[in-house]
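agent: user wants the structure for Tudor domain-containing protein 5 from Nicator chloris. delegating to structure tool.
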Amino acid sequence: TCKQAHLMEVLKKEVRAMLIAAKAGLTPEQLEEQYMAMVCKPLPLRDLGFQSTLELVTQMPEVVRICSKNGTLILRAIADDSTKGIAKLVANQKVKTRKASKKIATKANATFPTKYPKNPQSFQTPSARTPVLPAAVKAELQDLLSSSPLLLADLDKAFLRRFGRAFQYRQYGFLSMFEVLRSMSDSMVIEQTKAGSLLVLRKNLASTIGQEEEPQGEAEEEEEPQGEAEEEEEPQGEAEEEEVPQGEAEEEEVPQGEAEEEEVPQGETQDEEVLQGERLDFEQFPSTPEIPPDAVQDRSLCSLPPLKRRCLVGVIVEFVVSPSQFYIHICSREASYNLQDLMFEMRHVYSHKVASDKYMVPESAVRPGQLCCVMVSKWWYRVIIHRVINDKEVEVFYADYGHLQIVQKSWLRFLKWDYLKLPAQAIPCSLARVKPVESTWSSAAILLFKHLCRFKELVGIVDEYVDGVLYLFLCDTSTREDVYFHSVLRDTGYAVVCGENIPSQEFEELNPSALYVQPSGNQRDAEVVEPGLGLQQN
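agent: tool returned. relaying C-alpha cells verbatim.
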C-alpha cells in the first residue's frame, strides 16, 4: 500500500544513517537494539509484512550490504550520493594517539586564540573516540563493588540481580567489557587470581593495603573486640532493662495511664502521650506529617556559570529532542565526581525507611515548580515538578539530565538543603547557525544527529546565549578531518546554515530550565566576539 511504501522509504533513510555511523557495521540484533534506542520503538517488521530483521534488510539492496565475518552476519551501509561524504569520514575514523591529540589542541588554539590559556576545562580537547559511561551507570558499578570484590565472570549476573536489568555495555558505544573497565581504571582495578579476573574497587584496595601495613588495628580487634567486650562485660542496655525497667515499673506500680486511656476521652490524654514520646519513638506518627526543617520548599537550583564566547569545551550530549533542543554535560573529572557523590549520598540517606517517610511530599506541596527528588531503579535524582497529571501522577523535569518523565506522586521526596548546593548539571543547548530545511526537523535528521552525538566526548565551540539557551557548534575530532555537525546536516540535505542564530522553536514552546532553574549569571551579557575565520568557513 501507499502507507507501507512511505514507511519503507523513511525506514531506509533511518537504517542507512545508523549503519553509516557504525564504522564496523552492525549485526541484525545490534541494528534492532540501536533502532529501539534511537526511535524508542521496535523496527516496524509486522507493519511491512516481514518476519525478521534479516528478511527486512534483504529487501533493501540499495541500502544494506550483508557480509559475513567469522560466521557472524554483519550489515554495512551502501552510501548514496548525499551520504558518500559522511561514509568517507566515518571510514577514516582512527584511534587517537597522544601526538594526534596534541596536534588537534594546537590547531584549535590557533584557530580560536584566547586570553585564558591556563583554563584546563576550556582547552583540553578529549578524544571523541573514547566512549563514556553515564554517571548513573558508573555509580551503579561502583556501588556493586563497594561491599566486596567481584569476579569478572560473575559481573553480569550480579548486576542483573542488584539492579533488575542486564548490563548492556554496547549501547554506550563500547565494543568489549575490557573497554568499559579501562574507562573506569581511575576507580577500579583488575587482579588476576586462580579463580579468574577479580574486580576490586580502589577504595577497598586502599583499605586492604592499609590493614596489611598496619596489622596493629587487627590485633586490637582480635585481642579486644570492643563491641563484644562491652556486651559481655557490661551489657548496660540489658542491665538497665533488668534493674530498672522504667516503662514497665510505671505501668505496674501506677497503672493510672491505662485507666485514663479507658475512662478519659483520647483528646485529654495527648499531653501524656507527648511526655512518653521518647519511649514510643517512631511507632506513632501524627496524622499530618511535619515537614522537616531542612527540606527545600521555596528555593530553586542554580544553573552553571555561563561559558565564555568562543571558548572550546569538552561536552557529552546527554539528551536529544532535535538539533535545536538538546542538553549537555560539561566534561570534567570534578563535575563527574560531584554528581556521582551526590547520587551516592542521596541513595544512602533516602534508602532508610525512616528518612524516606520523614521527607515524603504531602499533597499540599505537590505543585509545579516544587524541587524534590525521585527514585528510579534504586537511584535518587533531583527533579522539579512540571505539572500534575492526575491524583496519582506528576510530570517531572530532571534538572541534571534534561528530560521530562511521568512518575508516581508517592515516589516524590523533599530535597534536603545539602543537596541544593550543586548547580543543575544539564545545560539547554541548540546547534548554532543552522535551521531545518522545512519548518521542523525530520525524523531522519534527528536520528542522524543522535548518532553523531551518541556517548561520545565532543568539542563544543560556544557561540552565544539566547534566552538562556546555549548556542554552540559541535565537532567530532576523532577523524583525520574535524567533523562539524552543522556541516554534516547541511551536506545531507537536512539543514540550512544561517548567518545568525534563529531562536529554537522547541525551546520557545517549552524550556523547563528557564522556568525552574535560577541563572547563576546574566548569560545575555556573555562576551561578544566575532567568530574566527576557520569557523566562518565551516
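agent: one observation worth passing along. The radius of gyration is 29 Å.
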